[in-house]
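Practice set, problem 2.
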Amino acid sequence: MDITLRKINRAEVLRYLGYGDNAPDALVAAQLDEAETIVRRLAKPRVLYRLFDLEPAGETLRVRGTALDLAGEAILAHLAGADQCVLLVATLGMAVEREIFRLQVVDLALATVVDVTASAAIEQVCDQVQEELAEMTASKGRFLTTRFSPGYGDMPLSLQQPFCSVLDAGKIGVTVSKFYLLTPRKSVTAVFGICREPVSAPLKACALCAIADTCSLRKAGTSCGKFD
């Protein structure tokens, strides 16, 4: 599934850069404009997702018909009441990645802004898919949870590998390193629960995040918004 990238949320980019409510100066504003132009020109958003049934398996939730067990208290709480799930992998593609690496050699400041802009862009891609899934789910009288990714809370990052295997993520150019990191870096795996009853308020990021104690966004009084 290919997807059209919407205009990138400037406020989100500034939040990632740690600006909070402060306005950027003229130089940074120009870099933001250039970064968005670069990302929108080079990004080739692609998405794969599949629907599965869920079943309890001891202290995990098994994605039926696969070798993937969803482990961790956080994901079990997030999917409480769900009897189905959607597994997702999304990416911006390698062209953005190559440009960031090139800019790190010739213009480190711009490379940083492009990197952050691309992070906001892949989150928006996931948001768009989430909106579509929520509409499809609602049309069947069901309810969609927010997304939850390996590495959130105590959900092991090692689940990246079975996630990508189940979805055959190589079809859209996404691979997993021996350290369980995705390539291209501007890629995301996630799971959504599908419930018969309305979903309660989503879990909050800072209550789950493994880097809560050292997060620069949290210290600045904001958050990454991944669970908002």
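Problem 2, part (b): a different protein.
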Amino acid sequence: MLIDHVGAVFFPGEWTFRYIGRLAFPIFCFLLVEGVHYTHDIRLYMLRLGIFAAVSEAPYDLAFHGEALEFGGQNVFFTLLLGVMLLYLFERGGEWPVKVLEVLMFMWIAVILKTDYSFKGILLISMFYFLREYRGAKLAAGALWNFLWNNPIQQYGAMAVIPLALYNGERGRSMKYFFYLFYPLHLIILFLIIKMSGLR
């Protein structure tokens, strides 16, 4: 993600940065589903995502648009928040027709809110959730999702299945708040570098 953002801000014509960055979102979605499965309090999970979505919006807009509030697109935390809200509904039960309608509803909300990765982000989260117990199918679906885009850059995201295939289901070192904080902080740093260097 950091490599992707550095490329987007400082080297917009160098696509190598963007190719590498395409791996980030599928990994985020995969780990989001795992987080919902293992969390002791999904409501607290949603609250945490909501707080960091709000906190990150101004840094996101400053880094990519040069304005503190710009409503042309919302940061990725909003997509992840919608994803957890959807999974919360799934966890409460319901028949398949209802689940399909829930997916479509949240895809529509993502479009209306203009969240990062939009409705396709919600689709990927749903795919990882429903295929969670089917390792091969889950990885294949996660790879194929990257080819749903008109922009061929996202196809490089299919390589995310390599680290995902190495996931052993065990919890690593607890650093969740570091990663939550890293998102807005690195965007603020990018914005400050932009301002100090006079790039905008």
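Answer key, part (b): The chain has ten helices and no strands. Residues 42-65 form the longest helix (24 residues).
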